[in-house]
């Protein structure tokens, strides 16, 4: 189906706003947004930027309610855990502000060095690690080598964001399968890499 044909079909459907969908389904506005982003509810945006949801997709979700529990069986997509490691508090705050603004179904965890990161990884089993390299205590190189030395660590998706030049990074033998971005953080490119990594997690 072409995009124009799809739009014409949408115009012929009964629609509702995300606020109305949340009221009909008995969930929060944010849950409706997550269902839209994950494809569980069919929606599109008007020329004015307002999201409209197909009433038929809302009705299908209502039909999947568990009669005994009175809840929707298809819950919002599970949150993916992203661990960000950087020794600079202002950088950690910047990551938090940026990633929270992406509207992705993820939980952000912060660590200030490699030691703390390894503890968090053992506790939380994150889906993705975003790390600086040049840090006091255990730096990013040692942390990544430790992770890559066992099966669980080898399965963890890793993205590096560093102020070091590429030659220095290469000389210190960072594994070649890890994407590397230079500071200042290119958040547009980083988001694409994060979404790709989380889709594989």
Automatic annotation (TrEMBL):
SUPFAM superfamilies: CheY-like, Putative DNA-binding domain. Residues 81-198 form the Response regulatory domain. Keywords: Phosphoprotein. The keyword Phosphoprotein applies. It comes from the Bacteria. Gene3D superfamilies: 1.10.1660.10, 3.40.50.2300. The modification 4-aspartylphosphate is found at residue 132. NCBIfam families: excise. This is Response regulator.
């Amino acid at each position: 189906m072409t995009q124009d044909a799809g739009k014409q079909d949408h115009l012929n459907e009964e629609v509702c706003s995300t606020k109305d969908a949340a009221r009909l389904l008995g969930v929060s506005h944010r849950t409706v947004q997550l269902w839209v982003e994950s494809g569980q509810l069919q929606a599109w945006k008007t020329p004015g930027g307002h999201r409209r949801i197909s009433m038929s997709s809302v009705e299908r979700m209502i039909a999947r309610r568990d009669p005994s529990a009175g809840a929707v069986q298809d819950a919002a997509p599970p949150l993916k855990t992203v661990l960000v490691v950087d020794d600079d508090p202002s950088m950690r705050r910047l990551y938090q502000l940026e990633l929270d603004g992406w509207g992705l179904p993820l939980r952000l965890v912060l660590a200030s060095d490699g030691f703390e990161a390894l503890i968090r990884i053992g506790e939380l089993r994150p889906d993705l690690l975003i790390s600086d390299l040049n840090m006091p205590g255990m730096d990013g190189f040692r942390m990544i080598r430790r992770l890559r030395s066992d099966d669980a660590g080898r399965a963890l998706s890793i993205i590096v964001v560093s102020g070091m030049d590429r030659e220095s990074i290469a000389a210190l033998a960072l594994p070649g399968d890890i994407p590397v971005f230079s500071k200042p953080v290119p958040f547009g490119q980083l988001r694409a890499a994060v979404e790709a990594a989380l889709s594989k997690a």
